[in-house]
Amino acid sequence: MSATMRDVKDRTGLSLATISKYLNGGNVLPENRILIEKAIKELNYEVNEIARGLVKNKTKTVGVMVHDIECYFSGKLLHYIGKELRKRGYGMMICDSCNDEELEAENLRFLVNRKVDGIIVLPVSMKGGFLKPAKQDKTPVVLVDRSFQDEEFDCVAIDNKVAAFRAVDLLIRHNHRDIAVIASDVEYTGVERIKGYEDAMRQAGLEIRQEYIKKGRHSSEVGYEKMKELLESPNRPTAVLMGNYDTMLGGVMALNESEFSCPEDISLIGFDSLMFTGVVRPSWYMVVQPMEKMCEKVVELLLKRVEKKLDEAPVKMCFGTTIQEGESIRRIE
Question: Which of 230, 225, 325, 319 is nearest to 270 (CA)?
C-alpha cells in the first residue's frame, strides 16, 4: 500500500499543515525540511499530482499540439519542448493533428477538457478560430513556428520571409538567374517563404516565372513530385530553394533518380539542418533555425501566462536564422 501524508506525519512528528506546505513549494524551517525529505525517501512517498491539481487548480501538465508528428522537424521541437518542461516540473500531453484541421479542433477540445495548464500549438490551420474553446476556458495558448492570418496569439517563430529572401539572395550572388522554389501554399511557413523568394527575385530585377513556383503542402511526396517536374522542364532552373526539411527529402530522392547531379546541373539550398543533412553528399547549404532557443522561449512564455505574469497583449518573438555553408551551390561564371 502506498505511503500517505499521514505516514510522513507519523514518521516526522510534524503537523499535516507543515508537510503540506513543504509539498506545495512553501517555505518551512530547514530542520523540518530535512525530516520531511528523509521520511519521503524512507517511505517511498509519492505526491498525488491529481489530488494536488484539484486543490491548486493546476495539473502541472502542458498540452502540445503538432501539425504532423511524422515530420522530423515536429519531433525535434517536441524533444526540446519536453526537455524544457521537465526542467520546470511539468509534464507534456502530445496530440497529433495529422495535417487535418478537423482533428486539430478535436485535439484542442480534448486538451481543454483535460484541464491542462496551457497549450503549445504548431498549427495546421491558417486561422485561429479552432482555439475558441481555450479562450473561453482562459487556457493560455502559445504558437510555435507558425502564426495566423486573422488573430493575434502569443507566438515564437522565425521571420520566414526574411529567411527565404536571404537564401535566394545567396543564389543570386552566385550568379543564378533561373531560380525555382518548392514550398507550401497552404501552410503559414510556406506562404511566407514564397513571399521571401518573390521579394528577392523582384529586388534583383529578375523575372518571377510562375512555372518556377511549385506549390503543395510541405511533404516529401510534394518535394519529390515537384522536383521531377522541374528537372523534366525544357526550361530547367539552375537552382532551387526547398521550402522545408520534408520537401527537401523528396527533392533529393527525385534528383538521385534523375540523370542530373548537384551542384553541377542544379544548385540547391534547403531549410533546417537536421539528421539527414549530415549524411548526404554533397553537403547542403541550409537555412538553420535556432530550434532549441525557440522552444526554451515558448515554454518560458507559456508558463508566464499560466502564472499570470504578463499583461493581456499578445507577445510575438521573432528569431533570426543563419545559413550553414555547404557544397550544393555552384557559382555560375
Answer: 325
